[in-house]
Each structure stands twice: as C-alpha cells, then as structure tokens.
C-alpha cells in the first residue's frame, strides 16, 4: 500500500542524519509541487497518481506525502489508505482552507509563496495570519483575592459572594 510506504518513509529513518536528509528532500519536492499548483492556479488535481507524480517531477511516495498534507484542505477528503500508484485521483483544493491550514501548522515556506498573490487577497492572508497569532497569545488570569470586589459585579467582596 502506497500510503503505508509513505508513512514508513516519513517515520522510520535509521538515524537523525538520514531523517534530516529525508525531510529536506521531501520539503523541497513539496514546495515545488505547491509552486506549480499555485502559479498555475490548479485547484483540481486529477489523474493517475503515478502520472501526477511524473507531472510534478517527484516520486509516487512523495506525491502521496503531498496528498497527505493537502487532504484536509480539499473540498472532499480522499481515502488515502486506498490509493495506489494506478488509482485515479480527483482532488479539488479549497484555497481558503489550504491557506488557513498552512498558517496553522506554521508552514511559512508554503504560505509565503508568491503564487498566493493571484489567488487570495493580501487582506485575507494578513487577517488569517493575525487571527492565528492572536490565538497563540496566552492571557494569564488575574487571581482574585478574598477581599477583592467580586467579578460577578454584585459590589460585594469575593469572600462574601461567589467565593463562599
């Protein structure tokens, strides 16, 4: 099974050096695929997986890795475990979902690609990044002392109101 091959490749490297080399190669291939998809505004990726891998100048396993990464951003998710090299793929990309997901996994090398300029407005992209950055801000709750005013707004001391 191709998905299993992809998972084994991505998870089982013999040492740290091999793992780094693997991810460098994959991320380079993935970036190339995204560059082509974005620059051509290809929102529908369709064909046999092996042919698509050739079209995007990568291996079937790396293309499977691309599909694994983009799957949550498709209008209709693929059943990755059933895909083989000769399987016909039809993957319709939702640009907004894709951009949102790239920002949320902090894949800056992908969400900063020039191809986005002609697909999503700069305002939308900046707003998506701002909202994500806000979601990472941790607000420390202020501790309420026994003699402080109750936060419920009753005007009583906390110990005589909600702190009972």
UniProtKB/TrEMBL annotation:
UniProt protein name: Preprotein translocase subunit SecA
Spell out the InterPro entries in the cross-references.
Answer: SEC_C_motif
Q: What is the lineage of its organism?
A: Bacteria, Bacillati, Bacillota, Clostridia, Peptostreptococcales
Which SUPFAM superfamilies does this UniProt record tie to the protein?
Sec-C motif
Give the source species. Peptostreptococcus russellii
Q: Which PANTHER family match?
A: ADENYLATE CYCLASE-ASSOCIATED CAP C-TERMINAL DOMAIN-CONTAINING PROTEIN, UPF0225 PROTEIN SCO1677
């Amino acid at each position: 099974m191709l998905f299993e091959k992809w998972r084994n490749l991505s998870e089982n490297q013999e040492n740290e050096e091999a793992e780094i080399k693997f991810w460098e190669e994959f991320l380079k291939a993935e970036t190339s695929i995204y560059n082509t998809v974005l620059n051509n505004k290809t929102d529908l990726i369709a064909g046999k997986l092996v042919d698509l891998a050739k079209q995007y100048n990568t291996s079937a396993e790396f293309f499977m890795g691309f599909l694994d990464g983009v799957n949550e951003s498709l209008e209709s998710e693929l059943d990755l475990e059933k895909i083989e090299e000769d399987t016909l793929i039809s993957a319709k990309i939702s640009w907004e979902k894709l951009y949102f997901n790239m920002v949320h996994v902090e894949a800056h090398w992908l969400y900063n690609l020039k191809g986005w300029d002609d697909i999503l407005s700069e305002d939308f992209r900046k707003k998506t990044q701002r909202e994500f950055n806000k979601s990472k801000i941790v607000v420390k709750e202020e501790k309420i002392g026994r003699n402080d005013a109750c936060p419920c707004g009753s005007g009583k001391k906390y110990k005589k109101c909600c702190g009972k």
